[in-house]
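pinning this so it doesn't scroll away 📌
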Amino acid sequence: MTTYADRDRERWAPEAPKRRDRTAFERDRARVLHSAALRRLAAKTQVASPGSQSAADNVQSLRTRLTHSLECAQVGRELGKSFGCDPDLVETACLSHDIGHPPFGHNGETALDGIARDCGGFEGNAQSLRVLTRLEPKSFAPDGPPLYGRSVGLNLTRAALDAVMKYPWSKDSSRVRAPRAGGGGPFGVYEDDADVAAWAREAAPEGRPCFEAQVMDWSDDVAYSVHDLEDALVAGHIDFALLADPAERRLVAQTTIKLYCDDADLAELEERFTELLAAPYWPSRYDGTQRSLAALKNLTSTLIGRFCLAAEDATRARYGDRPLTRYAADLIVPRDQRLECALLKGVTAHHVWISHEQRRARQRELLTELAELMQAGAPGTLDPAFRAAYLDAPDDAARLRAVVDQIASLTDVSAISRWRRLSGRD
């Protein structure tokens, strides 16, 4: 028996029936997979920026935003399926979750948030919704009301858009509490896109992500924490021997509290970290040999299984064996596994982000300079799609948003290339 209603399969702009026998969620997944926005993630930062020296030295192995999204989708598809979610629906959400991320990853997100302060700020999650419902050209609404011929992006189903929104609120919501470097807490909806968000969230409990979005969110954390650690080790940013030092573990725990879990105390995190590193599947070293590569891969697969099974067991213990979809349940992740996942992210943040802050600062400066150059020469400095949005904009805020949308669409390499050309440094 299906656990999804007809309204879950509705699209914002109605479409004529299709001839091929595919489910609505299979179509959603195909639309995201074939999108240019997803392909561009292949040249956007995950741990090492594509085109950087460390990435060039390990071109066969280091991840990009695209490979991270694919791995997140694999984790989410299997985890969602174990609960009775439609696997194509969860995979669509996982493939889409980073589709709005700008050049230079979260570092670029911080820069664009400052650039966009006069038009509502910038947030990667809100930009993902904007890409899916406006910026990725595939579907246009009919010329009549209520959409009046506007772009509806990929025109995904209601359930798919809802599953992408792990922060289903706007920047001005009282739910935006958790501070982050350079700005406020996360949010998932720009005011410009409030209409489609309200449609996707119609009758949903206020502020509560659907179950599929919660599965996507945990799958993202799992893939991000484990695979970024693996890449940092392969790229030489982290040495296993360092983690054996209690003083080093304390520094990582302090970074983890600052960035990911301010509800934990230092002693609790240090204890959890020490116990995790004592597990028999942790390699003692990594030297690039086949044996150490295999040990590292065993570590990543074991950790993914540990994190996913913990969530599955805890959630099933509360809700039983019935199918869990939409708003029938909340995903339960035990505190120990949440802290372990946060610690793995803290290892990468401490050894990659913080230790490379000079390079990261230059990336933020470059995006700020690029925005100034684009605004000074607009609309001629914009690509045709964004130029049209700029020319049609009713005010300065909307014109600034068109510039921000343009920059967010760029890859790491194309942002640098565009800056060089506009600044005359080619």
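📌 and the second one:
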Amino acid sequence: MYQVKEAFYTLQGEGAQAGRASVFCRFSGCNLWSGREIDRASAKCTFCDTDFIGTNGINGGQFATASALANHIHALWPQSSSRATPYVVFTGGEPLLQLNAELVAALHRYGFEVAVETNGSLLPPPGIDWLCVSPKGTNPLAVTHGDELKLVYPQPDALPENFASLDFSHFFLQPMDRGSEPLNAQTVKSTTAYCMANPQWRLSLQTHKIAGFD
């Protein structure tokens, strides 16, 4: 049974694939935080700005089989698009609690490229086409190679230099945004300064928030 908080067609908002048309599928649940404010202070990740509890978001629900969820995702992709490769981004919470090889294969049969954004604490199933790891604090990484490492910055216990030698094709720093608070201009400035001083890293801004799309 797959538990999906929400799923919708949009543009990828951040990282190396920013601006790309995507079906965005958010799984419910996380292994670093319950999602409840009462547990935030004691969580393994304390700065998450995402609601991943339940299945009550747009196009959310429970799906008994990989085929059923793949059909649901396929229906969200514009059927008039013949030249663009269908693209789905799985996120959470922590998507690798639920994403498995059966679902990846079902989406490949529809021609989708399958992307995942994970905290890196769990191993991914085979067949992922784009793997983005976003480390959280001191939580150990089970995934140390992939397409993209995207580090929310600053994290006092997760310094960029701790990850710079890992085997990723792209390295991004993304200014921390706590969701309920305005993005701090000083945070953006310090993130920009780090990238300029350490050009292995590129600046990632959440363009979906800047441009006003979800």
